[in-house]
Specification:
Blueprint (H helix, E strand, L loop, with lengths): L1 E5 L4 H11 L5 E6 L2 E4 L3 H5 L7 E6 L2 H10 L6
Antiparallel strand pairs: 1-4, 2-3, 2-4
Length: 77
């Protein structure tokens, strides 16, 4: 699993992130403390404390992860 820190500043950013993440063929998690949410589920994502940084867990190959990270670069910390 590849891990990166991300941060959102608005609800619209979260919606855009989830919409983009839903198009990926591999599993992606958001980890906040001891809670893990499916990053492809808007309800799961909104259930997390998004006021601070969260960890993105990507279950993909290095090449797939690099392409995905390029698409979400504006959210990376």
């Amino acid at each position: 699993m590849i891990k990166k820190s991300i941060k959102f500043t608005s609800v619209n950013e979260i919606k855009d992130f989830v919409n983009l993440t839903m198009t990926q063929p591999f599993d992606i998690d958001l980890i906040a403390g001891r809670y893990v949410a499916d990053a492809k589920s808007i309800l799961s994502v909104f259930g997390l404390d998004l006021d601070s940084e969260v960890t993105l867990g990507i279950h993909a190959t290095e090449e797939q992860a690099a392409a995905y990270l390029g698409k979400i670069a504006k959210y990376l910390v």
